[in-house]
Amino acid sequence: MNYRSYRTFLGRSLHYKKFLWPINALLFNLCKLYPYRDKRLWVFGAIRGEKYDDNSRYLFEYVNEHADGKIRAVWLSSVGDVVAYVRSLGYEAYNVYSINGFKAAISAGVAFYTHGLHDFGHFPMLGGATIVSLWHGFSFKQIYNSKYKGFAVLLKRIVDGVFSWVQRDYSMVSSTYVLNQTLKEFKIKDSSSIFITGQPRNDALFYNTDCNVVKKDIFISNRKVISFMPTYRAKGQSSGTLKDIVDELVENEELNLFLKENNFLFIIKLHPSTPEFSIADNDNFSILSYKEVESNQDLLKLTDILVTDYSGVFVDYALLNRPIVFYTPDEKDFYNYSETLDEDANKVMMLSKAYNPHELVERLKHPTSEVAKVTNEFFLDTSLKGTCFCDNVFKAMLNIKGID
Questions:
Q1: How far is CA 330 from the centre of its chain?
Q2: Domain map of the chain by residue range?
């Protein structure tokens, strides 16, 4: 069993974050006693340590290119291939379980994560460092702590006060709306610890992109692109499966005719937690697994129309002011399993929503940027327009750490 398989097994069978909580509660707080943290050493991790991507990646690269020797930036990962890849780009990177990885973690003055402290392995030695949550995207959904009710909420707050996998000193968000969401979802008392900077990964939406970083052979026909990027559906969350939904689209004659007549390629990009599956051979469709796309932002830039369901990816895509369609054929079952989106979310989704292939085709025939416009009113602070999100975060942290 390789490391990644072992990690998956451990996470599912032992719920490793809960299983390891007592050990980390002790280690993390003992680390606070270590007096030699370097405010100019910044460590970065992402996606449970398994991939070089998301907000941490783009900020890491920006710091390396613009720090002018002020900052030593180090990428930490629990996957050897990720470490090797980051080093191949000319950056400093270590396995978090190596001696150099341990030294970097225990000495770091600042640590940035996207999903939580588990971005730095099962035993994040970061107590005493300034911990910054870049998070992995914002939407209308409450995800963290959503399952806790009544007395369990109070108990969770007490536990989190000792050690939490999403512990942070500062949070970086994109608007006042997200700031208020963050305060509520993570039970943060001090709003001054939250900075409106934008998401670093979304600077990449405005870079030039080589389509080969997405996949070599699907963009060579110069076809326009519709990308379907559905969220993860847990077992029991829907009476059908995502494969059922996709198969219905692939087999629909009306949709196929529309795609062919309008020179569209319909790409299905799977969520990282969704098991891979194949589709029937069809020149109008292509399916991409999580590992086949280096970065979602690269795919979004090449997308002419985004189709999604309950995923927050539309918030990123809205920055491009292009058409967005919500395709939710399993909406009733999905919401019976999970919490219903709030009223604001439903208002946005109803601007361009489809429940079956025919309605989807009608939406695609009459694309609108109204969803993007309204989404940006919620998620893009007016002060951020025309700014570099990476630079906003970088300058905020230099100021916090007192680095000239």
A1: 23
A2: 3-198+386-401, 207-379
Superfamily per CATH, domain 207-379: CDP-glycerol glycerophosphotransferase, C-terminal domain (3.40.50.12580)
- Amino acid identity of residue 79, one-letter, is V
Q: Which CATH class is domain 3-198+386-401?
A: alpha beta
pLDDT of the chain, 404 residues: tens digit per residue: 444 444 444 444 345 667 788 898 999 999 999 999 999 999 999 999 999 999 999 999 999 999 999 999 999 999 999 999 999 999 999 999 999 999 999 999 999 999 999 999 999 999 999 999 999 988 876 655 555 566 666 676 777 778 899 999 999 999 999 999 999 888 898 999 999 999 999 999 987 655 555 554 555 567 899 999 998 876 555 445 889 999 999 999 999 999 999 999 999 999 888 888 889 999 999 999 877 887 889 899 999 999 999 889 999 999 999 999 999 998 887 776 555 567 788 889 999 999 999 999 999 999 999 999 999 999 999 999 999 999 999 999 999 999 98
One fold for 3-198+386-401 and 207-379: yes
**What contacts 373, CB < 8 A, 6 or more positions away?**
318, 321
Nearest alpha-carbon partner for 45 in 102, 119, 123, 130? 119
- Cα 91–52–85 angle (5° rounding)? 50
How many other CB atoms sit within 10 Å of the CB of residue 351? 16
CA distances from 353 to 28, 84, 226, 229, 371 (A): 46, 43, 15, 15, 10
Token output for 55: 């907000």
